[in-house]
Amino acid sequence: DVQLQASGGGLVQPGGSLRLSCVGSGFTFDDYAIGWFRRAPGKEREGVSRIRSKDGSTYYADSVKGRFTISSDNAKSTVLLQTNSLKPEDTAVYFCAAGRWPSYRGSSYYFLHPRWYSYWGQGTQVTVSS
């Protein structure tokens, strides 16, 4: 069975940092992209960042570019999301998900829409507040 386990959320003051972790099992990591998504109260789920496991290519939403960094350790089937300079508007439940990379797409492709991701982990709450 495919499983994704997200962790690392918490309460942090504005300007602070958190490192979110996503551990996957039951699928071939190299064939997939791992994405981070978030859902804030009253808002739709939005894509935050993704990494293509095969070559490490990344994509970031404009709202987090320059503040968040995604990385992967394929040997450990783990993807990390380092979140820095957090803002109150980053408050949300964060989810990691796995989507099979379309073979006809290059590494720079966006690939950050929830509908392309088949497997989802449980969320981890990030709250940014003073």
Structural overview:
There is one protein chain. 0% of the residues lie in helices and 48% in strands. It is mainly beta. Strands 2, 4, 5, 6, 9, 10 and 11 form a seven-stranded mixed sheet that branches. Strands 1-3-8-7 form a four-stranded antiparallel sheet, with no helix packed on it. Strand 4 and strand 5 (46-52) form a beta hairpin.
Descriptive keywords:
mainly beta; 4-stranded antiparallel β-sheet; 7-stranded mixed β-sheet; 130 residues; 11 strands
Mean pLDDT: 94
Largest sheet features? 7 strands, mixed
Order of helices and strands: EEEEEEEEEEE
The backbone outline, from C-alpha atoms, is globular
Q: Helical percent range?
A: under 10%
Low-confidence stretches are none
- Which structural class matches the secondary elements? mainly beta
Radius of gyration: 14 Å
Extended strand count: 11
Topology summary:
Layout: E1 3-7, E2 10-12, E3 18-25, E4 32-39, E5 46-52, E6 58-60, E7 68-73, E8 78-83, E9 92-100, E10 119-120, E11 124-128
Parallel strand pairs: 2-11
Antiparallel strand pairs: 1-3, 3-8, 4-5, 4-9, 5-6, 7-8, 9-10, 9-11
Quick recap:
With 130 residues, the protein is mostly beta strands.
